[in-house]
Amino acid sequence: MNGKIMEKAARLIILFIGLVIAHLGVTLFLLADLGADPFNVLIQGLRLLVIKAAAISPTHGTVHMTVCFLIILVLLVVDRSYVKAGTVVCMFCGGPIIDFFTWLLAGLKIGEMTLPLKIIVLILGCVILALGMSIVIRSEAGTGPNDLVAVVISDKSGKRFGIVRMITDGAFLLTGFLLGGRFGVGTVICVFLVGPVAEFCMPFSGALVEKSLKIVDRG
Q1: pTM value?
Q2: Phi and psi of 39, rounded to 5°?
Q3: How far apart are CA 208 and CA 219, in angstroms?
Q4: Structural domain boundaries of the chain?
Q5: pLDDT 10s digit of each residue in the chain, 219 long?
Q6: Nearest residue to 186 via CA among 37, 39, 41
Q7: Cα 199 from chain centre
Q8: Which residues are CB-contacts of 213 (< 8 A; sequence separation ≥ 6)?
């Protein structure tokens, strides 16, 4: 019993490390200010839809949280094994981590850089995000609701994660755009880069997770 508890705790710690890495990437992406990520373009569009349809003006964060909860509810019906403790950790820890890195990196003044440098920072952010995401997924302790969409579709269809992630991100972007969401060159780069890089990192992240678990087990 203690061994299983230790393993679950270790997996959650690994997930959190991956989450920190991923949100460092997200922060770099946001500071480059070349467009929102595909999921947030969708959130923008849905927020505008709610404003037009219901004559109320929810915050972006409220809509984001609502959509995440809806994804979790759907997964609880489709396959509840995907909803784990780490899913909740991802939902509530992402924002504070981004706030911390935004404060930490403020001195770099990324928003004042030239466009070519911003693009380099954005690409670096996407790569770091993909690496962190692969660690989170391979921890098998849970994944953020928006990332779970691609994970579940990939698992159920047997299709490569990189391709599925590109398609889901593309669907988020297109739907959000049709609803009035705004995007930039960074959004498009994100669609085509994050999924394939995450898939490339999966074997290395999986090996890292297994090695870490063996160290914990021996301890």
Answers
A1: 0.91
A2: -65, -40
A3: 17
A4: 2-212
A5: 577 888 889 999 999 999 999 999 999 998 999 998 999 999 999 999 999 888 788 888 888 889 999 999 999 988 899 999 999 899 888 888 988 999 999 999 999 999 999 999 999 999 999 999 999 999 999 999 989 999 999 999 999 999 999 999 999 999 999 999 999 999 999 999 999 999 999 999 999 999 988 887 776
A6: 37
A7: 14
A8: 7, 10, 11
Amino acid at 200: F
Q: Which residue has the tokens 């409220």?
A: 62
Interior/surface letters 40-64, b for 16+ CB within 10 angstroms, e for the rest: bbbbbbbbbbbeeeeeeeeeeeebb
- How far is residue 82 CA from its own chain's centroid? 15
Residue 84 is which amino acid? K
